[in-house]
Amino acid sequence: MSIYELIILSIALALDALIVSFSYGTVIREKRYQNAFFLAFSFGFFQMLMPILGWFFTNIIYSYVEMYSKWVVFIIFFVLGIKFLKEAVFDFEEKHISCISPICMFGLAIATSIDAFGAGASIKLLNIEIWQPAVIIGIITYMLSFMGFIIAGTLKNISEKHVCILGALILFYLALKALI
């Protein structure tokens, strides 16, 4: 696998994380750089970890994970979409999406990196060592996620209700995309 092919693979694997980061960046307005770092680090770390796990456990786990991965991703994105929509429809005292906790980030990071597990399995089947691809996948995911979160902040003049609806629609799209 050439470095060019590896970069293309990394970008493709990072797209879900980029979209989620962008939707979070439109909604979370406080501690922008701290939250961008936390979200991007979570996504980048799991995008790096999952191919390693896929590479090591290809023959043991992949058949089990493959059966349920679409549904796990669907449920996580769908529930988060409901949360965004609920915030848009009901006028809560809480002004912003607050799902940037470590538990929420863990769930999102897993959901956006399940494809990377499959990529690790594919890399193993190609008889390629995993360390360089995993690091590149993690770094590119981190960079795209961080930039997506920060760039989304330029949309701060849009009403919060509309931003929450946009975030919900993006998450519902990702949930449905996981089932296809």
Structure overview:
The chain is mainly α. The protein has one domain (3-179). The protein has six helices and no strands. It has helices at 3-27, 32-56, 58-89, 102-125, 131-152, 160-179. Helix 1 runs antiparallel to helix 4 (102-125) and helix 2 (32-56) packs parallel to helix 4 (102-125). The longest helix is centred in the middle third of the chain and has 32 residues, at 58-89. It is globular, with a radius of gyration of 16 Å. 43% of the residues are buried. Residues 92-96 have low confidence and may be disordered.
Number of strands: 0
Structural class by secondary-structure content = mainly alpha
pLDDT averaged residue by residue: 80
Uncertain stretches: 92-96
Given the C-alpha coordinates, what overall shape results? globular
Output the keywords.
180 residues, mainly alpha, 82% helix, globular
Short summary:
With 180 residues, the protein is an all-alpha fold. It has helices at residues 3-27, 32-56, 58-89, 102-125, 131-152, 160-179. The two termini are 27 Å apart.
Helices and strands, with pairings:
Elements lengths: L2 H25 L4 H25 L1 H32 L12 H24 L5 H22 L7 H20 L1
Helix pairs in contact: 1-2, 1-4, 1-5, 1-6, 2-3, 2-4, 2-5, 3-4, 3-6
